[in-house]
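Hi F.,

I've been meaning to write this up properly since the lab meeting, where we talked about keeping a consistent format for the predictions we share between groups. The idea is simple: the sequence comes first, exactly as it goes in, then the C-alpha cells exactly as they come out, then a line or two of notes. No screenshots and no reformatting. I'm using this chain as the first example so we have something concrete to point to.
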Amino acid sequence: MTVNPLLTVGITITASANPVVLGTVVTFTASPVNGGSSPSYQWKVNGANVAAATSVTYAYAPANGDVISCSLISNAACAINNTVTSNSVTMSVTSVPAVVVLQNLNITDTQCFGASQTITVAGGGTTFTVQIGGRATMIAGQKISYLAGTVVKPGGYMRGYITTNGLYCGSKAPSVPSVTEGEDTPAISLIQPFIKVYPNPTDGVFVLELNGFDILENIQVEIYSMTGEKVLSTDFRGGGKYNLSLSGKPCGIYLVKVISDKNSGIARIIKR
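Output, unedited:
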C-alpha cells in the first residue's frame, strides 16, 4: 500500500512596488504552498475576478486603494482545504505634479520630492537646507535646478535624478541617474575665498591652499563624501599649500571642511 500524506494548501502574494506613482505598472507574484504540478490561479481586484488573469503573476497599473488578492486550486494528491485565497495587498498610488518649487525648507529626516517636469530648489533669497543626518532626493522628468540658498551641511546627503522610465518617489530607483546643472549659483554654499582646492576635478591627489591664516594657527581639515561619511581627517599648523589625496575613494563630489580658531569654511571638490 502507498499512503500519501494530507497536504495543506496555501498561497501568498507580493507586489513589485508599493507605493507607486499613478500609471506605474506593478507586477504581483504568487507563492503557492503544496500547489501541485499544475496549480490554477485566479487574480482578483477589489474582490472581482480579472478575466484571463490565471497565471502565477499578474501585472497592471493600479488605482489608489485597489485591493489585490489571488485564489489557488491545487492539483496535488491528497490536498486539503482547496480552494484557498491569498493575503490582500492594498495599493497606495500617488500622482506626480508637473512642477515642484522647494523653498524655505529645513530637511532633518528622509524626504523625496518628485515632479514630472521640473524641480526648482531655493533661489530668490529663499533657502533649502539639508541638515546633518538629513537626506533629500529629487526625481524629475526633465530638469532639476539647484539655485542660490541650497545648502547641504556636512553629514547631510542630497541626490538628484532625471528619470528615463517614469518612476518617481515611492517607485524603483531610476535606471539612468543624472543631475542637471543649476541655473544660478552652485548648490554648495558656505564656500570661502580663503580656501582653494585644485586641480578640480581631480584624479586623486589635489592641493588645499589656505590663505589668511596665522603662521602658528591650528587648522583642522576634514573631508566628507556626499553620503556624510568622513573619509579623511588631519591637522595643519598655519596657512600654505598642502597635498591631500582621495586615492582609493569612489568617484564623486566631496566636501573639504576647514576649521580654525578664526576662520572656517567648506570647499567642494570632484573626484573623476
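Notes:
The chain has no helices and 28 strands.
The chain has a mean pLDDT of 85.

If this format works for you, I'll send the rest the same way.

G.
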